[in-house]
Design goal:
The structure holds 2 protein chains of 2 kinds. Chain A has no helices and 12 strands. By secondary structure, chain A is mostly beta strands. In chain A, a hairpin with a 4-residue loop joins strand 8 and strand 9. In chain A, 35% of the residues are buried. Chain B is mainly beta. Chain B contains no helices and 11 strands. In chain B, strands 2, 4, 5, 6, 9, 10 and 11 form a 7-stranded mixed β-sheet that branches. The chains are: A mainly beta, B mainly beta.
């Protein structure tokens, strides 16, 4: 069964500083990896995904993520955080075969301090 | 496209009452997912459909929960009877793709259910 670990409950970062949200995964076969963001009282919004190819994936709002197969990680990054990036971030994974079920992490609250 | 539409946005009911949550997926999407989100348990997949057929309902908590998808543009999640521990935000999501699809899911705004 696939699973995701997001080890930190909350990530605090000063506005303008680099932002990193960590994610490690476990899955059978090759992974399909996703990042979603959730703003208060809203549904999850898709940010980016890794399927195959270049290990560095670029997504919406200036976010990017790096796939590292040896470390089974898919950390989300942004070079310069904005106050508006404060939200809940979810990492998700599924294997490249089997059913279409995504495994989500517990989420990380990101707080960008002005 | 209007995105995934859910109704109602908020529902407050009393224990023992029947609750029906509704979802309209994005037109053309062939997968539909129902999730539940709570502080304690995070985001849980309850059930998902492919081409209106339930594929995996292993996340449905118990027999009080049932879900249907009578056509490609409508799905319901029903709780009967409801209990206070069912209080949560329920999300519907849809996606496009075949059996090995890697397409992202699009989420609705959610229904916040409170059972008193």
């Amino acid at each position: 069964a696939q699973s995701v670990a997001q080890p930190e409950d909350q990530v605090n970062v000063a506005e303008g500083n680099p932002l990193t949200v960590k994610c490690t995964y476990s899955v059978s076969g090759n992974p399909y990896l996703f990042w979603y963001v959730q703003y208060p009282n809203r549904g999850l919004q898709f940010l980016l995904k890794y399927i195959t190819g270049d290990n560095l994936v670029k997504g919406s709002y200036g976010f990017e993520a790096e796939f590292n197969k040896s470390q089974t990680s898919f950390h989300l990054k942004k070079p310069s955080a904005l106050v508006s990036d404060s939200a809940l971030y979810f990492c998700a994974v599924r294997g490249n075969y089997g059913n279409n079920r995504l495994a989500f992490g517990k989420g990380n609250q990101v707080v960008v301090i002005p | 496209d209007a995105g995934v539409i859910q109704s109602p946005r908020h529902e407050v009911t009393e224990m023992g009452q029947e609750v029906t949550l509704r979802c309209k997926p994005i037109s053309g999407h062939d997968y539909l997912f129902w999730y539940r989100q709570t502080m304690m348990r995070g985001l849980e997949l309850l059930i998902y459909f492919n081409n209106n057929v339930p594929i995996d309902d292993s996340g449905m908590p118990e027999d009080r929960f049932s879900a249907k998808m009578p056509n490609a543009s409508f799905s319901t999640l029903k709780i009967q009877p409801s209990e206070p521990r069912d209080s949560a935000v329920y999300f519907c999501a849809s996606s496009l793709g075949g059996g090995y699809s890697y397409n992202e899911q699009f989420f609705g705004p959610g229904t916040r259910l409170t059972v008193l």
